[in-house]
Design goal:
alpha/beta; 20 strands
Length: about 700
């Protein structure tokens, strides 16, 4: 009865749950499982199938997916994850348990985020309690970390830890909860392994596909801002590590083979020291030099968490015995990070979109090549390569190498080579009036373009090459037969410009521009009349030939963007740059760092405060002026009003005197007598009495 059930399970894809599917390791585990189309390569007798048998079975199934991946995400995102069938965000425990019960395999990754420990413990406990309600066998895989071994003491200095010694492991003080969870997971898997099997995969420090724990060293090297890459501590600690894709392969094999061993180490065979790892990163990606610093300085580095610092300081020599014995894995980086550094760096750049942008800007003298090149470099954070600066920099470096050579044999040979090259450059410049012959010039420029900073971020090659032969020697100096039989240079893909800009302008425009340049710029660019006209004529002559630099790029299917310069006005220059930016596309770098973002925000805040302070000061000044104006005119207004009032009173007085005199002479004497008489008599009708009195006593009655 068991065989039909197993056969049925093989025919249908397994549903796999992975927590935090948007995190580094969980993401690549999900991607590998989603891409897996082959069933477990084990036949009915339990023997491993051959590669041919596996391919034949895969072909017969028509490429059906072996796993359907679902999982939780930590944050809402617009990112499309085609490798995930369903995503869950902020589920409560009841909803999450329902999703887990629908899955055949449950993977909890706690190697990166300690905040998943509690949920992982709850999940395995809840599933263990629900075993009676399982519709079929389930598997629980805990992806833990070798930090649960960090405090283990080897029997001898040269001893190697293996999976078989897992019961003797001792965790780092900050990873006690991890080892407790490992033990709980193992214990719950012993109740009924047929129905509910549990596994612990102790992962080494993960690398590859964009990096996570080693990202600080890759980023510092790639940016090229440090002359020496730091190694925290003495660097002699052995770091157990594994490529994240190999970790995913281990988990895939656990799911497919369901081994009896329930505790597995997932580490590669390298046993590299921290110093070896950082030195390899610095050599391939950065300045090639390292500097040992006290491990306490690591805690001052914002890009490193405490958990990552603890992991980088681990010292464990380990061997994944069970993985090698139980599985026939196709390792990607079994030999480790250092041995595969070229591949890891390529993955890092591809995964993070850190691809160099290489441009070549051509054109006649004074057309504006340097101005355009500088603006491109500023926008895309590229390296501006000019002949003058490159030659000066090369000579300075050679002089420094010769001067500061170490006494050991290797450095002595290196210094002798540098001295020979320096003498060659000086002799050539003396013989050619301060200029280098083409062969040495091309070598100097090529060495600059092959430097790690130019290969990392990219470059803008300003005004070089000038001839077809220079271009051919610069980009195709070392020819070899490629697979399709064509001649191809080993340098071409690394330093060949992706974009070529050809600026053009009429001779009349160029002459007029030079005539209107400030004297300082004329001297700086050596644009005196005779020299400028000679350079312009030489450029026109070179571009009148059949084999030009533009034709060279055309032959390589690199179509130059030709731009006609007709104006020096700012709006026209802005339109020109917008056209260039639209052609080249978006920047391919880290963008501003958190410190740079904080600095920009700080500057914006300061600018806002300064602007508000200016506005407030301006308002206060305006109000003070208005108050002063009012105060200055208030007395004048008061004095004016007083004068008006006096004038009105005088006018009124002038008009009232004749009237008052008239009344006093003709009316008031008789009226006064009448009023006195009226008061004396007090008649019943005083008005009538007064009227009669005035009529009788009217002195003008005749």
């Amino acid at each position: 009865m068991e065989e039909p059930r197993i056969e049925k399970l093989k025919m249908s894809p397994k549903k796999v749950f992975i927590n935090n599917i948007d995190s580094y390791a969980s993401k690549y585990i999900a991607m590998l499982l989603c891409a897996c189309v082959a069933e477990a390569p084990v036949d009915s007798d339990g023997e491993i199938k051959t590669e041919e048998e596996e391919k034949r079975e895969t072909s017969n199934r028509g490429g059906e997916a072996a796993f359907h991946v679902v999982g939780t995400v930590s944050d809402k995102s617009d990112d499309i994850r085609p490798y995930v069938l369903e995503e869950y965000l902020q589920l409560n425990r009841e909803e999450l348990l329902s999703k887990l019960m629908d899955c055949d395999v449950i993977i909890y990754n706690i190697s990166q985020h300690a905040d998943q420990l509690e949920e992982a413990l709850w999940a395995v406990s809840a599933l263990h309690n629900e075993m009676g309600h399982f519709s079929g066998p389930k598997m629980f895989i805990l992806v833990s970390t070798v930090m649960t071994w960090a405090s283990s003491k080897p029997l001898s200095p040269d001893a190697t830890f293996t999976d078989e010694e897992f019961r003797k492991r001792r965790a780092h003080p900050n990873f006690i909860q991890h080892i407790d969870l490992e033990r709980r997971v193992v214990k719950m898997g012993k109740t009924n392994r047929t129905l509910f099997s549990t596994y612990v995969v102790a992962s080494g420090l993960q690398y590859g596909m964009g990096e996570q724990i080693f990202h600080f060293f890759f980023k510092t090297s790639w940016l090229g801002q440090e002359h020496e890459i730091p190694v925290f501590g003495d660097g002699n600690n052995i770091v157990p590590a594994i490529h994240v894709t190999d970790l995913a392969s281990v988990i895939q094999n656990v799911i497919e083979h369901q081994p009896k061993k329930y505790y597995l180490l997932a580490v590669d065979s390298s046993n590299n020291t921290m110093e070896e790892i950082v030195k390899a990163v610095a050599s391939v990606l950065g300045p090639g030099k390292i500097q040992k610093r006290p491990f306490e300085e690591a805690f001052l580095t914002q890009d490193l968490s405490v958990m990552e610092i603890d992991s980088l300081l681990v010292n464990l020599c380990m061997e994944a015995v069970h993985v090698k014995e139980l599985f026939s894995m196709n390792w990607l980086c079994e030999s480790g990070l250092v041995e595969n550094m070229e591949l890891i760096v390529e993955e890092y750049q591809q995964s993070r979109g850190l691809l160099p942008i290489c441009l070549c800007v051509l054109g006649p003298p004074a057309v504006g090549k340097s101005t355009v090149s500088k603006q491109i470099c500023r926008y895309y954070k590229l390296h501006h390569i000019t002949l003058k600066e490159t030659i000066s920099e090369t000579i300075a470096q050679l002089e420094d190498t010769v001067k500061n050579a170490d006494p050991d044999a290797y450095s002595d040979d290196f210094a002798a080579e540098a001295r020979e090259q320096l003498n060659s450059l000086r002799e050539s410049m003396e013989q050619h009036g301060g200029l280098l012959e083409d062969q040495l010039l091309v070598k100097v420029v090529k060495d600059k373009l092959m430097s790690n900073p130019c290969r990392n971020q990219g470059f803008v090659l300003d005004g070089f090459p000038k001839t077809y032969e220079q271009a051919k020697e610069l980009f195709y100096a070392e020819d070899h037969e490629s697979e399709d039989g064509t001649s191809m240079s080993s340098y071409s893909k690394k330093i060949m410009p992706e974009f070529v800009l050809c600026l053009e302008a009429s001779d009349a425009f160029l002459k007029d521009r030079v005539m209107n340049l400030p004297e300082r710029q004329v001297q700086e660019h050596n644009y005196n009349q005779e020299h400028f006209l000679r350079r312009l004529a030489r450029y026109r002559e070179n571009n009148a030939e059949d084999d030009t630099v533009v034709n060279y790029f055309d032959e390589l299917d690199i179509t130059p963007l030709c731009l006609e310069i007709t104006s020096s006005n700012e709006p026209d220059c802005l339109l020109l740059m917008l056209k260039i930016f639209d052609t080249v596309g978006k920047p391919r770098n880290y963008g501003p760092s958190s410190q740079e973002v904080e600095e920009v925000e700080r500057r914006k805040a300061e600018e806002k405060m300064r602007r508000e302070a200016q506005e407030k000061a301006e308002e206060e000044r305006r109000e003070a002026e208005e108050a002063k104006y009012r105060a200055a005119h208030w007395e004048e207004w008061t004095r004016g009003l007083e004068e008006v009032r006096q004038k009105e009173e005088e006018l009124l007085e002038a008009h009232s005197v004749p009237m008052r005199n008239y009344l006093m002479e003709h009316v008031m004497p008789t009226l006064t007598q009448g009023l006195i008489q009226c008061c004396t008599v007090q008649p019943q009708d005083p008005v009538d009495f007064l009227a009669e009195f005035l009529i009788k006593k009217n002195p003008f009655s005749y």
